[in-house]
């Protein structure tokens, strides 16, 4: 089978970038800088969602599925600097050339990765190949919206119509899967600033499992899997999660069973 890499980012506001772009905030602590930036954003836009280039990546959750089975993990360690996480992600692409699968990856995750790699000087030659090095990439690469090397499942199911986008949490639950647990993206900064790094990474991991399960249902819908193959894939995920240590997986399986 084609190796598949499901991915999801968790981000926090980048205090260093905010100080660079707002010299008057030099000397302030990170928390103070971020609160000022969020307050300014709320006043100007009615929400505190910062522009994508000001998001610092603190966790990358991944499901990797290939002929060797199903694995889920967060890249790197809790205290790894951002460039280490970015390098880990793109080295996986360099090594395996997997099909990338995301939920809103085109709208959020990949643009954030582009900006952060640019800022840190992280190389990602395989990912950016548009056919210059590998002719197979000319008409099927990671960058083309309608290509198959990256499937943004939200974008595809909405027929590339932003007004038709649906939340992953809703779709996962409607398909009979657990959905989000513990927090959502808007709560990550608060949790991270309070030292709940393990909880943020655990939340990210459950989200990529939700995405993979919805993707399996999509494969059933489009006829790529028959009913028997679909059930076997779902059972593989369930059995794999039962073998992984972590309170989040016990809670996840209990929700799934319910």
What does this entry look like structurally?
By secondary structure, the protein is an alpha/beta fold. It has a single domain, classed as Nucleotidyltransferase, domain 5 (2-Layer Sandwich). The chain is built from 11 helices and 5 strands. The protein has helices at residues 15-21, 30-45, 82-96, 105-120, 125-128, 153-157, 168-174, 188-193, 197-221, 227-242, 247-257, and strands spanning 4-13, 55-66, 69-74, 99-102, 150-152. A 5-stranded mixed β-sheet has the order 3-2-1-4-5, sandwiched between helices. Helix 1 (15-21) crosses helix 2 (30-45), helix 7 (168-174) crosses helix 9 and helix 9 runs antiparallel to helix 10 (227-242). It starts with a strand and ends with a helix. The mean pLDDT is 95.
What attributes does this structure have?
5-stranded mixed β-sheet, Nucleotidyltransferase, domain 5, 11 helices, 258 residues
Radius of gyration: 19 Å
H and E order: EHHEEHEHHEHHHHHH
Give the CATH class: Alpha Beta
Please list the strands of the largest sheet in the order they lie side by side.
3-2-1-4-5
Q: Low-confidence parts lasting 5 or more residues at pLDDT below 50?
A: none
Percent helix: 40-55%
Q: Name the structural class.
A: alpha/beta
CATH fold group: Nucleotidyltransferase, domain 5
Sheet with the most strands? Answer: 5 strands, mixed
Q: Characterize the overall form.
A: globular
Provide the domain count. Answer: 1
> Going by CATH, what is the homologous superfamily?
Ribonuclease H-like superfamily/Ribonuclease H
Task: Give the count of helical stretches.
Answer: 11
Query: What is the averaged pLDDT score?
Result: 95
Separation of the first and last Cα atoms: 32 Å
Number of strands: 5
Beta content comes to 5-15%
In the CATH classification, which architecture applies? 2-Layer Sandwich
């Amino acid at each position: 089978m084609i190796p598949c890499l499901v991915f999801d980012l968790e981000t926090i506001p980048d205090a260093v970038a905010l100080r660079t772009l707002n010299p008057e905030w030099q000397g302030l602590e990170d928390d103070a800088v971020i609160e000022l930036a969020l307050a300014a954003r709320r006043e100007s836009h009615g929400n505190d969602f910062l522009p994508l280039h000001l998001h610092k990546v603190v966790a990358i959750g991944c499901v990797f599925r290939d002929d060797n089975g199903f694995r889920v993990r967060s890249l790197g360690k809790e205290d790894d600097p951002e460039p280490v996480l970015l390098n880990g992600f793109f080295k996986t692409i360099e090594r395996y050339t997997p099909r990338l699968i995301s939920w809103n990856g085109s709208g959020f995750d990949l643009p954030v990765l582009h900006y952060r790699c640019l800022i840190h000087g992280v190389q990602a030659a395989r990912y950016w190949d548009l056919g210059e090095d590998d002719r197979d990439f000319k008409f099927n690469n990671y960058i083309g919206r309608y290509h198959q090397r990256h499937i943004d499942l939200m974008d595809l199911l909405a027929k590339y119509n932003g007004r038709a986008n649906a939340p992953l949490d809703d779709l996962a639950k409607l398909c009979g899967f657990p959905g989000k647990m513990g927090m959502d993206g808007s709560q990550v900064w608060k949790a991270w600033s309070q030292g709940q790094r393990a909880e943020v990474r655990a939340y990210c991991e459950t989200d990529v499992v939700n995405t993979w399960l919805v993707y399996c249902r999509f494969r059933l819908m489009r006829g790529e899997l028959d009913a028997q193959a679909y059930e076997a894939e779902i059972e593989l995920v369930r059995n794999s999660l039962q073998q992984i240590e972590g309170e989040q997986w016990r809670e996840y399986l209990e929700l799934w069973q319910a």
